[in-house]
Structures are given as structure tokens and as C-alpha cells.
Amino acid sequence: MSDDQIVMHCAATLRDRKAGSLFAAEYHDRQSLYKEIAELNARLSSGNIRTMVLGFTKKRALVYLYRPNRLAAALSDATAQKILQKSGYDTSHTGACLTRLIRRMKDTQNFPHEIGLFLGYPSCEVEAFIQNDRPCVFAGAWKVYCDAEYARKCFRTFRDCTLTCRQKLSHGIPLEEMTIERKED
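Above: the chain's sequence. Below: its structure in C-alpha cell form.
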């Protein structure tokens, strides 16, 4: 798991613009991977960022990098609660939701559709995607059904976060410092 890989897939979460991000990381053995995850969690703890493994294939692990406060807010939305409860989630606390997501990842052939909530996508968009009863307006980080202008703004912000973090990384700024807001950002 390289800092470059994390920046490419998780910049908006690093910059506190998004609840969570996913990326696939190659690994040789689970023990080494869990050690890397623990080290990354230690590096990013001052930025209130956590990482965890959601699932495995033979050579890759699906790593989830998230901001606990943003995730809790995203999952507490009334529409999000309804979506999660329909899929058997205990919505009383975020930890229970994460545990259920891991189980759903193991039990489902494809990504469970509610994963968009864990990534900070608007709950109305996740609900529309699940219902699949109307065409999407366009697609970016998510399929957009409800609020195209808000989505465009988010997609620009996500892109800008990636550009900013890539530039910082190229100038030798460590990943953990990218989580700290500065006035010039």
C-alpha cells in the first residue's frame, strides 16, 4: 500500500470532503497487511482517519479509509437509516454498521448497494440507485439521479482534492500532513 495509491483513491477523504473511500491493495500475507493497516492508522490518527479491510481476494484486499465523524453523520440521515435497516443493519452505532458491511461484503457477489452511504454519497442517490426505477442524469463518483448541480460540485471538489494531494506528495509532504487544513489550501 503506497502513499501514492492512497492519494489517488482517497484524497477527498484525506481532505475531509468525503466520509470514506475504497481501494484495492495487493498483499502477500494477511499478517503483513494488518501490520500495514495498523501503521497507517497510527500515521493518520491525528487527522481522525481510520482504515480497515472490508474483504479479500487471493491477491488483493479491499481497504476502506474513512472519517468516523463524517461516517456517523452520513449513516444517521433518515433515508440512510431506512436503507440500512432494510438490509439488516443495526443502525444504533457506526461500529455495528461497519461489522454488518463486512458481513454483507462476504455474503454478496457484488458490492452491496448501500456501500455508497459508507462512501458519503447522498442518501437520495443511493436510494434511487437501489430502486433502479428511473434513469440516472449522469455518472461520476456515483450515479446521479437527484441533484445534478450538487453532484457536479462534489465531483469537482473530489478532483481538486486529488490534484492538491498529488502535488503535496510530489513535494515530499507526508500523507498525515495532508489531513491538516491550511489557509492556503
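Helices lie at 3-14, 30-44, 68-76, 78-86, 94-107, 115-118, 123-131, 148-170.
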